[in-house]
Write a structure and sequence with these properties.
The chain is an alpha/beta fold and 453 residues long. Helices cover 33% and strands 22% of the residues. Bound molecules: 5'-deoxyadenosine and iron/sulfur cluster.
């Protein structure tokens, strides 16, 4: 296995990576670094020193892409300052825009999410007149054999990709087109990666997939040895009782009772589920092709809470999807009030070229209405987050220390099992230690705690 920490060797050519978008992209940048480190590169966080500048990009909403176009202009200034600097756009935006990114020779390399192994040869082949592109999607690539080089600074919490791609084709979503078909990674390599992280001092792993509930490893010889997500969770949880296990993202249509019971069975599987609802209106959910309705979603929440009463539940919401009526919007608000999510990522609908929605439904909700609805959703969630946090007052929690709190260096911060951020006085512990605390007061974002024991 290769080194899981960045090498710091000044004589090596330098690579600079900016990462946009989801946790999966963060982990992909670590895979990229591993591949390039094996080729003799070293990471730099100073763009002025880089021989190769990469942006690992996101296409999920138009504003994510617009930001990256702005960054490309900045990267190009480096070429004016220093000869030979190579600029690469990798990830979802590379996959979506393909050779459009090479028009006018804006960048030197375009590489999609399944072609990171070819980055060394692409870099070698670049000349001032010959940009390089590889946007082939694969049905097999999971980078299973590569140990990502961890770029986090605190060495406590790491991501493990358990699958790639998505087969769901929700009508608004570009991900199936940029990341390709779903494929699961060999569970043996996942468990090995978790163990390696634990042996290197990590205390928490987050298993990542677009839809972890559809994880399925098919054994080539004996179907009895197939591994589903609940079984994988259990295998990773058994690495060590002091290694916390998280996962993301769950799909309401697929999250099984078996997963919920497995979570309940192991103390070290964190009691938090990110369960994107997208809308509270069954009509909108149908148009979004989510394959569940409002009642199904509420039943899943009910099941989770009946088995794991303290489970944190967070969500994603889209405001102003095609044809959304005022009543559909009210349905989203009422669902949020009924569930009382701990927190939510909330977005205005952004039409993505090539998706089913872009082809079939006009993006007909005026910008001002989308924004108004989004603001209403955000304001409600802020009240719901406070309400959910208030329920924690008086509870005793076990927190994994992430480091000093941002506001006050005499205090520490870290997350409880339910993923809520806690702040409490320091007794000299460091990142990676566990602390027992009691919640004394709250804001909508933080639990303020006192020390126990
Ligand atoms: N517009 C707005 N939000 C979107 N998401 C995905 N596609 C779009 C889109 N076209 C949101 C969904 C998803 C999250 C990762 O991003 O809420 O769960
Ligand atoms: Fe996109 Fe739906 Fe797949 Fe999530 S499950 S990545 S929203 S298509």
């Amino acid at each position: 296995m290769n080194d899981i920490r960045p090498v710091t060797d000044d004589s090596r050519p330098k690579i600079y990576i900016e990462t946009y978008g989801c946790q999966m992209n963060v982990n992909d940048s670590e895979v990229i670094l591993s591949i390039l480190q094996d080729e003799g590169y070293a990471l730099t966080d100073d763009m002025d020193k880089a021989d190769v500048i990469l942006a690992n990009t996101c296409s999920i909403r138009d504003n994510a892409e617009q930001r990256i176009w702005g960054r490309i202009d900045q990267f190009r200034l480096q070429k004016k300052k220093r000869d030979g600097v190579i600029i690469g756009i990798v990830g979802c935006m590379a996959e979506r825009l393909k050779d459009k990114l090479l028009d006018g020779h804006q960048v030197d390399i375009v590489a999609g999410p399944d072609s990171y192994r070819s980055l060394p040869s692409l870099i070698r082949a670049v000349t001032p007149d010959t940009p390089q592109i590889n946007v082939l999607l694969s049905h097999e690539e999971t980078y299973a054999d590569i140990s990502p080089v961890r770029m986090d600074r605190n060495g406590v919490s790491a991501f493990i990709s358990i699958m790639r791609g998505c087969n769901n084709v929700c009508s608004y979503c570009v991900v199936p087109y940029t990341r390709g078909a779903e494929r699961s990674r060999d569970p043996k390599t996942i468990v090995r990666e978790a163990r390696q992280l634990f042996e290197n001092g990590y205390k928490e792993v987050t298993l990542l997939g677009q839809n972890v509930d559809s994880y399925l490893w098919k054994d080539s010889v004996n179907a009895d040895n197939d591994v589903n997500f609940a079984q994988l969770l259990e295998m990773v949880a058994k690495t060590d009782p002091s290694l916390r296990v998280r996962f993301s993202t769950s799909h309401p249509k697929d999250i099984s009772d078996e997963v919920i019971y497995t979570m309940a069975m192991y103390d070290n599987i964190c009691k938090h589920i990110h369960l994107p609802v997208q809308s509270g209106s069954s009509a909108m959910l149908e148009k979004m092709r989510r394959k569940y309705n409002r009642e199904w979603y509420l039943e899943r929440v009910h099941k989770i809470r009946s088995v794991i009463p303290d489970c944190g539940i967070t969500t994603d919401v889209i405001a102003g999807f095609c044809g959304e009526t005022e009543q559909d919007h009210r349905d989203t608000l009422s669902l949020m009030e009924e569930v009382v999510f701990d927190s939510a990522f909330m977005f205005a609908y952004s039409e993505r070229p090539g998706t089913l929605a872009a082809r079939k439904y006009p993006d007909d909700i005026p910008y001002s209405v989308k924004t108004e609805r989004l603001n209403e959703i955000i304001a409600l969630q802020s009240r719901m987050s406070l309400k959910s946090n208030e329920k924690e007052i008086g509870k005793r929690l076990r927190v994994l220390v992430e480091g000093p709190s941002k506001k006050n260096s005499d205090e520490l911060c870290g997350r409880a099992s339910n993923n809520k951020m806690c702040v409490f006085p320091s007794c000299g512990e460091k990142a990676g230690d566990y602390c027992e605390v009691e919640v004394v007061s709250v804001t909508s974002a933080t639990l303020i705690c006192r020390r126990l024991g």
